TrEMBL record:
Protein origin, superkingdom: Bacteria
Protein name: Pentapeptide repeats containing protein
Length: 183
C-alpha cells in the first residue's frame, strides 16, 4: 500500500545527500530519475509506475514490493538489489545490470530484458511470461519454479542455471493466436 507521499526529484536528491535513505511507500510515479546515484536506497513498496530510472545506480537497494508498471531501468545498475515480490510488468531493463539481484516472486511479464545481466540472480518463482531475454546473461541464475511461458530466449546464456520446476510453456505451433509483444 503506497502512502502517496510524493516529492520532486530535487527533494529526493537533497534528502539522499543528507544521509536519508528510506523512501518506502513514496509515490515516485512518472518521476524522471535518470542517471541518479542512489546506492543502498530503500524504496520498499514505493510506486515507480512509468518512472524513468535509466542509467541510475541503485546497487544494493531495497525495492522489494515496488509497484513499477512500465518503469524504465535501461542501463541501470541494480547489482545485489532486492526486488522481491516487485510488480515490474512491461518494464524496460535493456542492458541493465541485475547480477546477484533478488527477484524472487517478482512479476516481470512482458518486460524487455534484452542484453541484461542477471548472472547469479535469484528468480525463484518469478513470472517472466512473454518477457524478452534476447542476448541476456542468466548464467548461474536460480530459476526454480519460475514461469517462462512464451519467453524469448534467443542467444540467452543459461550456463549453470537451476531450472527445477520451471515452466517453459512450449507454444502450440498450430495456434493462430498472436503472441503479446514485450514492452
Amino acid at each position: 500500500m503506497v502512502l502517496q507521499l510524493s516529492m520532486d526529484v530535487m527533494q529526493l536528491v537533497a534528502r539522499y545527500d543528507s544521509g536519508y535513505r528510506d523512501f518506502s511507500r513514496f509515490d515516485l510515479s512518472e518521476a524522471h530519475l535518470t542517471g541518479l546515484f542512489l546506492p543502498g536506497v530503500r524504496l520498499y513498496q514505493a510506486d515507480l509506475t512509468r518512472a524513468s530510472l535509466k542509467q541510475a545506480i541503485l546497487t544494493a537497494g531495497n525495492l522489494a514490493g515496488v509497484n513499477a508498471w512500465r518503469v524504465d531501468l535501461s542501463g541501470a545498475n541494480l547489482q545485489q538489489a532486492c526486488l522481491e515480490r516487485a510488480t515490474l510488468i512491461r518494464s524496460r531493463f535493456q542492458e541493465a545490470d541485475l547480477s546477484a539481484a533478488n527477484l524472487r516472486q517478482s512479476d516481470l511479464r512482458l518486460s524487455n530484458l534484452r542484453q541484461a545481466c542477471l548472472a547469479g540472480a535469484d528468480l525463484r518463482g518469478a513470472n517472466l511470461c512473454y518477457a524478452d531475454l534476447t542476448d541476456a546473461d542468466l548464467s548461474q541464475t536460480d530459476l526454480r519454479h519460475a514461469n517462462l511461458t512464451g519467453t524469448v530466449l534467443t542467444r540467452t546464456v543459461l550456463t549453470d542455471c537451476r531450472l527445477q520446476g520451471t515452466a517453459l510453456g512450449v507454444e502450440d505451433t498450430g495456434s493462430r493466436q498472436r503472441r503479446p509483444r514485450a514492452y
